Amino acid sequence: MIDNASKPNVTAFFEEDSSTFSYVVQDPKSNRCAIIDSVLNFDYASGGTSNSSADDIINFVTEHKLKVEWIIETHVHADHISAAPYLKSKLGGKIGIGEQITIVQETFGKVFNEGTEFELDGSQFDHLFHDGEQYKIGELECSAIHTPGHTPACFTHILGDAVFVGDTLFMPDGGTARADFPGGDAGVLYDSIQKILALPEDYRVFMCHDYCPNGRELKFETTIKSQKNDNIHVKTDIEKATFVELRESRDKTLSMPRLILPSLQINMRAGNMPEKEENGLVYLKVPINAFQ
Predict the structure, then answer these.
(1) Which residues 6+ apart lie within 8 Å of 175 measured at CB?
(2) Alpha-carbon distance 243 to 235, whole Å?
(3) CA distance 110 to 112
(4) How far apart are CA 277 and CA 93, in angstroms?
(5) Domain boundaries in the chain?
(6) 32-71, pLDDT tens digit by residue?
């Protein structure tokens, strides 16, 4: 039986264009909360941005008189742009990501030829989580565990009984994250997932994405028990070698995410845009053939 003091209130927000879930997670004993994996709306064709998804979160936080303590990124997303700086400017809170962000910055700083002015130390973020770190949201006990494999900087955040896995796991009928990005590794991903599956079976698990396999309705919540029993890639009777073969074979068939180029350039800066150029405009780069 889970103590109600360890069962946070979780509110999901869905951004349809990137099929991304963001969350407001509230300490049940106070008005303190965290925001996880926010989205800045982006139209690739025009280069236009908007804050409509983030404004939905702001309106919710304001209406419920919540106090934001954390704005958490589970990893450097390659499929959507973070709204963390905008949310911080309106609501406060510290922007946090895993300390291995420096590996991601090193890798993609070179890909995008960012130059010496781009710091590779994670200093764009307010806080870098380390593996096993304990922290609080109000009185709610929380922890961060390093779960690489999809990217080197992926972290799973355990907020009371609520587990936020980023892209590491999908709903059981969706399987797991791809592991073919630079720094990804299917074997490492399998080992990371075992850390998650070792959590209590009644813990709730919240998705960052859902692509509705076989046309089923949209879902964002499952349990550790359901993942162990039913996940098509990593349920308990699937061995590591089988998973690695399955994952690597599947990854060879996947196209790059539609927003990977803008997302990486912005998200490795904690959601901040590159500096404006002399004409007052911000530009993003398209490295030709870098992701073939």
Answers:
(1) 231, 232, 233, 234
(2) 10
(3) 5
(4) 29
(5) 9-258
(6) 999 999 999 999 999 999 999 999 999 999 999 999 999 9
